[in-house]
User: What shape does this take?
Amino acid sequence: MPFSPLRLLFPRQFRDLPQRRLILNLLRSAHIVCFSLLIGGLYYELPAEAWRPWLIGAVLSGLGLFAVDLYGSFLALFEVRGVSVLIKLGMLSLLPWLEGDARIGWLIFIIFFSSMISHSTRRFRHRSLAPAAFLRKYRPRDPREPTDE
Assistant: This one.
């Protein structure tokens, strides 16, 4: 069976991260604290030195959450949850061009968007948007499922 570099990103079985649930809970809690304090700092028009560490914390904790999903398989990028992260990053990239109330409103919209996705059903969040041919080739297999390899 030839080695495929894509199998590093799309393993035959989902990789399990030890203590995954604990790691996700810690990162999610840190993410909520950081973006809450970030928005508070922006809302009350504090100097950047007051809210910048919370911005960095929100970005790092968000990337950590996404990295845990990607560790299992990069197929997460092709699911609603992964696509929504990419959309959220795009929406966040517009922030430097916004000021004052527009910036706060946009951040609140992003929080609503993110919450709607993250608190939707597992079936919806994990719905694949990848083409069927791609899924046939790269989706992880159930170990009980017969293979033709």
Q: What stands out?
A: The helical segments are 6-9, 20-43, 48-72, 80-92, 100-118, 122-125, 132-138. The chain has a mean pLDDT of 90. The CA atoms of residues 7 and 121 lie 28 Å apart.
